[in-house]
Known about the structure:
By secondary structure, the protein is α+β, with helices and mostly antiparallel strands. The protein has helices at 43-51, 99-108, 119-125, 141-153, 171-188, 199-205, 223-226, 337-343, and strands spanning 8-16, 19-27, 32-36, 57-63, 66-70, 75-76, 84-87, 159-163, 192-196, 208-213, 216-222, 241-252, 257-262, 265-270, 279-285, 289-292, 303-314, 319-326, 329-336, 350-355, 359-360. The protein has a six-stranded mixed sheet, with helices on both faces. The longest helix has 18 residues, at 171-188. It is globular.
Amino acid sequence: xxxxxxxIRVRCKLNYPxxxxxxxxxxxxxxxxxxxxxxxxxxxxxxxxIAGLQRSTQAYVAINxxxxxxxxxxxxxxxxxxxxxxxxxxxxxxxxxxxxxNLAYGKSRVAQSQRRVSLDRAVSLLGIGHLMDRQSGTLSGxxxxxxxxxxxxxxxxxxxxxxxxxxxxxxxxxxxxxxFLENLHIELGIPVLYVTHAxxxxxxxxxxxxxxxxxxxxxxxxxxxxxxxxDLPLAHGDTAGxxxxxxxxxxxxxxxxxxxxxxxxxxxxxxxxxKIGQTLRIRVQARDVSLTLTHQTGTSILNILQVTVTMVxxxxxxxxxxxxxxxxxxxxxxITQRSADALQLAPGMALYAQIKGVAIxx
Length: 362
């Protein structure tokens, strides 16, 4: 069944002993949408409904112009007929087969006439060409997950469902695989639904964010906006921070620094090997931002931005979280209550944010 609407629509109800899932979501039909929340919030159940692995009542599932389930019309597309790729926390490769044969299995699941993704392109994007003759059981964790993603792409999916694909990997293996994940949806144009409870993965990958708790959607919107909303838990605590999308304008090789620009001003970051004009995601932790009434000189801090206070909210005991705006871009500062009182902070107040450090997310 087809529809003229774009985007991903999911409406469902599930009843388990002690837990109910009830969601009604409209998500973008492109880019990466992260489903974020604590364990048991309903993230995986949502993916299983989309995949058809979990039969829900009163459900509606549509991926851009194709309806996969509409209980009001008694319409249900079986799992094997849904053009989707599913990547689990465990790679689930056939360990007795080579990488090439694992990929061939994925490719065999889709008819020649329906193949929209070049397997050679997927292999190139995921950097696994040198692994093709290896037995899957000999691969590292990061290599196994890259092969699992390639196998999912070999089915030419209309959507890629990823259920905490990095949860079983250590920090080094995460760092190895994240750059490949960043490029997939850009290069292939396949929407990704990405389940995680790791905020660093949300910051690195997500364009859109859905917050789940207790089987309900608590918020849905642009990731950069939700991460700085003081009425949401993401914007509180030691891990709170803002995501800034900036453009590279120059490099200073001698100083090992790169200068970037965004609507709120200039951010100088550790040197990165990128072309002038390329965009970067930069994470600014709230704990690394201090506030001052006047522009300071004679300081080691390179990044000083003119900002406006939009809201002040209590955080940990003796601390407050300050929501700021710099050229329309949201930022956060976590400071002591004493400092907030001394500065007499209030919404609409203009002052300067001093940013001690930034993290380049890619």
